[in-house]
Amino acid sequence: QSEDSDVWDDTALIKAYDKAVASFKDA
Amino acid sequence: EGYSPTLKWQQQQVAHFSAVRQSLNKNRNHWQSQHLDSNVAMPKSEDEEGWKKFCLGERLYSEIEMLPDNENLGVDYIKVGFPPLLSIVSRMNQATVTSVLEYLMSWFGEKPFTPELGRWLYALLACLEKPLLPEAHSLIRQLARRCSEVRLLEENKNEERISALNLIICLVSRYFDQYDLADEPS
Predict the structure, then answer these.
(1) Conformation bin of residue B96: beta by default, left when phi > 0, alpha when psi is -120 to 50
(2) Which of A10, B16, B62, B123 has a CA positioned 20 to 30 A from the CA of residue B82?
């Protein structure tokens, strides 16, 4: 199911970037 | 000191980025077939200024203060720039990806690093095919060096900008095998 949600999320690249940037602060 | 990310964080970012690229390639046909809204007019590949406005928005491009948007009308992407949606980047062939990366690099060479720019640079790196074409190879090395320069000038280490610059340096150096540009693990 998560793969399907992958297909339908047009903003996946933006979310991936924002998550990666936020993860540095957490680290 | 204090800027350099840990090796563990860097390795995690490379793994996540690799998964993002795989998903992008797996679903590219789906997103290419998606209908784009009429207001999403992608510039021609050679239209450098058009792509800068498209990605960064009229507001940032012209550096003019514009009246705040009328909340009711929703986001005006012409003003704030179109985000790198999958339905947009999946329509860009390798020549266009490399050209837009070059245009945004020339912008970045003179202007501050912003979240809009960071998102597009990340998206374009995600679209770049390996093995890299010579001009793409040179562009991403230039990008990592410019990120390093800008990071050095950052006074506030806790800035989100530091995180974003670290991310791009990490991906260029460790995903695209430019290890001489990599941050030594802290």
Answers:
(1) alpha
(2) B16
C-beta atoms of B163 and A22 within 8 A: yes
pLDDT in tens, B98-148: 999 999 999 999 999 999 999 999 999 999 999 999 999 999 999 999 999
Residue A27 at interface with chain B, using a CB cutoff of 8 Å: yes
Q: What 3-state class would DSSP assign to B123?
A: helix
Query: From CA B103, how far away is CA B97, in angstroms rounded?
Result: 10
* Contact present, A2 and B19 (Cβ < 8 Å): no
- Paired tokens of A17: 């970037």
Query: Could you tell me the two tokens for B164?
Result: 């974003």
Chain A contact for B119 (CB, 8 A cutoff): yes
Tokens 């390639």 sit at which residue?
A: B25
Give the residue among B154, B149, B186 at the shortest CA–CA distance from B169.
Answer: B149
Q: How far apart are CA B145 and CA B110, in angstroms?
A: 14
Q: Is A2 on the interface with B (CB under 8 A)?
A: no
- Token pair 């602060």: residue: A25
DSSP for B135-175, written as a single string: HHHHHHHHHHHHHHHHHHH---TT-HHHHHHHHHHHIIIII
